[in-house]
Amino acid sequence: QVQLVESGGGLVQPGGSLRLSCAASGFTFAVYAMNWYRQVPGKERELVASISRAYTTYYADFVKGRFTISRDNDKNTSDLEMNNLKPEDTAVYYCNAHSLTYPDYWGQGTQVTVSS
Fold first, then answer.
1. Cα separation of 52 and 99, whole Å?
2. Which residues, 6 or more positions from 96, have their beta carbon under 8 angstroms from its beta carbon?
3. Cα-based angle 48, 50, 52 (whole degrees, multiple of 5)
4. DSSP character for 89?
5. The pLDDT of residue 11
6. Closest by alpha carbon to 79, among 91, 87, 67?
7. Can you say how many angstroms the Cα of residue 1 is from the centroid of all Cα atoms in its chain?
8. What residue ranges in 1-116 does DSSP mark as E strands?
9. 74 Cβ partners below 8 Å, 6+ apart?
């Protein structure tokens, strides 16, 4: 059974930090690129960061310098370290496993709220 389970969301004050984690199971994690998306009500889901099979990373401009994506192929996890959080970072964050060859998988999402 394929699973992507996010954890680590919550309420944080502006300027604070959170670390999101995505635990994968049921598929060959190492052959997938791992992405983090976010979505707010009424808006399209947007790509936040990506890490390829070769550990190449990509960041959306709005998180560059503040967020760091990582992966551990031994533990089948991908993390998103988020620093200097802003109220506009408030969203549901989703983990995505992407492959051009195999089906994509999505987690259920974790809420991040940045508010004082």
1. 10
2. 4, 34, 35, 36, 37, 104, 105, 106, 107
3. 175
4. G
5. 98
6. 67
7. 21
8. 3-7, 10-12, 18-25, 33-39, 46-51, 57-59, 67-72, 77-82, 91-98, 105-106, 110-114
9. none
d(CA 98, CA 47): 12
What's the rounded Cα separation, in Å, for the pair 112 and 101?
31
CB 17 within 8 A of CB 83: yes
Block residue for tokens 């954890």: 7
Asked whether the beta carbons of 95 and 112 are under 8 A apart, the reply is no
pLDDT tens digit sequence for 30-84: 999 999 999 999 999 999 999 999 999 999 999 999 999 999 999 999 999 999 9
- The pairing of beta strand 46-51 with beta strand 57-59: antiparallel
Side chain identity, residue 66: R
The predicted-structure confidence for 90-110, as pLDDT tens digits, reads as follows 999 999 999 999 999 999 999
